[in-house]
Amino acid sequence: MTIQCTHVIFDVDGLLLDTERLYSESTQKVCDEFGKTYTWDLKSAVMGKGEKNVSKIITEVLGLPMTPEEYIRRTREIQKTLFPTAKLLPGAEKLVRHLHEHKIPIAVASGSDNWCFELKTTNHQEFFKLFHHTVLCSDDPEVEHSKPAPDGFIVAAKRFGDAPDPAKILVFEDAPNGVIAANAAGMHCIWVPAPEVTQADDVKSKAILILDSLELFKPEDFGLPSYSQ
């Protein structure tokens, strides 16, 4: 049975842009100063959360001798160089351009803030102009709680302007927290996890489909125009 979706919302980091490895690299560089390791278990726990929450969790869990604010300053110095090198992930450009060309309303809902987003999209300005709007949860005054709370997706849906039924909104996420958030917002979520991410049963149950890559997505399975159209 085909699910009829009318609107699509995308996460960015690790889904459209190959930035999760850049976040890991900048974090590990700071951790190296104190002989600490930024594990995938910890990364999975913070993926999709806002920067302030992430910095608080990382400094506390790893026992880094710095405040969350200092951690943010240190990692940002590293990210200034790393983030502009971000590349689009396989299948991302094809899917986004396809939906845009067929006038499917598309938006971004990212846990990022404006500073990070501008750096990461330095070389992809034209691509991100294809979206109807972008919600940056760390900065947006209407987003009270970051993922796994549903706030970011609810705000993104509202800004389409045509009051779409949440059950007809398709979300693409790479982070477990994002899958939980989309599910809490009453939306269908396709999970595209990194190979290293542990696919816990409680997260799996909240995803309508799990894919290894956006390249494997078949739009027609969700009531969207097929690539052949």
Average predicted local confidence, pLDDT:
93
Widest beta sheet: strand line-up: 3-2-1-4-5-6
Secondary structural class: alpha/beta
Q: What is the number of independent domains? A: 2
> N-to-C terminal Cα separation, in Å?
20 Å
Categorize the overall geometry.
globular
Largest sheet: 6 strands, parallel
* Order of SSEs: EHHHHHEHHEHEHEHE
Radius of gyration, in Å, reads 17 Å
Structural description of this entry:
With 229 residues, the protein is an alpha/beta fold. The chain has ten helices and six strands. Strands 3-2-1-4-5-6 form a six-stranded parallel β-sheet, with helices on both faces. Strand 5 (188-191), helix 10 and strand 6 form a beta-alpha-beta unit. Helix 1 (20-32) packs across helix 4 (68-82). It is globular and about 55 Å long. The protein starts with 6 loop residues before the first strand and ends in a 19-residue tail after the last strand. The mean pLDDT is 93.
Describe the secondary-structure layout:
Elements: E1 7-10, H1 20-32, H2 40-46, H3 51-62, H4 68-82, H5 92-101, E2 106-110, H6 114-120, H7 125-128, E3 133-136, H8 151-158, E4 169-173, H9 176-184, E5 188-191, H10 201-204, E6 209-210
Parallel strand pairs: 1-2, 1-4, 2-3, 4-5, 5-6
Helix pairs in contact: 1-4, 3-4
